[in-house]
Specification:
single chain, 241 residues, 2 strands, two-stranded antiparallel sheet
Length: 241
């Protein structure tokens, strides 16, 4: 299984990264990582577009879902039936926002390992015959940021803030609801915790892992935000597309 993953996912992405690095005039590994991130995003664009559309559709249904949850809060079976009927009437697959992620997941894991482990010269034995061996990589981005080092606070903060903005935009709006005891219910508390916990966890991971991975995370999030805003623009200006 590991050999198949290396052959089909890790090795192609690793070779593409080294190829981009070789053709860049200044051999800047950081720019090569950014360009590779853009290329992968373009290849997976239809799947991520489908995922964002599914998330938007679920956002629109959120008020009706909240009404159903309130109406059948004491009957889980009727609650499930009512939710499924609503999805059927609205012609929305609740799993449609998850399936594109499952398809992209192997590529994202492969990119993770490329940036974590592929920057070492020992990995050059995985290069294809038509990809030149650079001998040694210049691991400095723009002349000052080492991509193999870690513990870079500004980069970790950028990654965390961008992740916060992405979750804030794509998370379904939800009014704070009270339970019978007058306290905020579990779903409202969980949503608020996710809004803080996930960006914080991402920032901590970016701080602990090599900066090359942080650059990838930051660019991936920026591209996702750009795609989200482009989708909103297309929906508001259908005659121009």
């Amino acid at each position: 299984m590991a050999e198949l993953f290396t052959l089909l996912c890790y090795q192609p992405l690793f070779n593409l990264l080294i190829y981009i690095y070789n053709v860049l005039p200044n051999h800047d590994l950081g720019i090569a990582i950014i360009l590779l991130t853009v290329l992968v995003k373009l290849v997976l664009f239809p799947f991520s577009w489908q995922q964002l559309e599914a998330q938007k559709n679920l956002q629109k249904l959120q008020p009706k879902l909240d009404e159903i949850r309130e109406k059948f809060k004491d009957d889980k079976q009727k609650l499930a039936e009512a939710q499924m009927n609503l999805f059927k009437v609205e012609k929305i697959n609740p799993l449609s926002s998850c399936l594109p992620t499952l398809f992209q997941f192997p590529f994202l894991i492969a990119l993770f390992y490329v940036f974590m482990d592929g920057l070492k010269a020992q990995k050059f034995n995985l290069l294809y015959p038509f990809v030149a061996n650079p001998g040694q990589l210049n691991d400095t981005f723009l002349g000052f940021l080492s991509l193999t080092a870690n513990h870079d606070i500004p980069l970790a903060l950028l990654v965390g803030i961008s992740q916060f903005i992405q979750i804030k935009l794509t998370m379904p709006p939800q009014k704070a609801k009270k339970n019978d005891g007058g306290n905020e219910d579990f779903s409202s508390i969980l949503q608020k915790q996710m809004l803080i916990f996930i960006p914080l966890m991402t920032a901590v991971m970016s701080y602990q892992f090599p900066n090359g991975l942080g650059i990838y995370w930051f660019m991936q999030t920026l591209l996702t935000l750009a795609q989200y805003w482009f989708m909103e623009w297309v929906k508001k200006n259908p005659k121009t597309t």
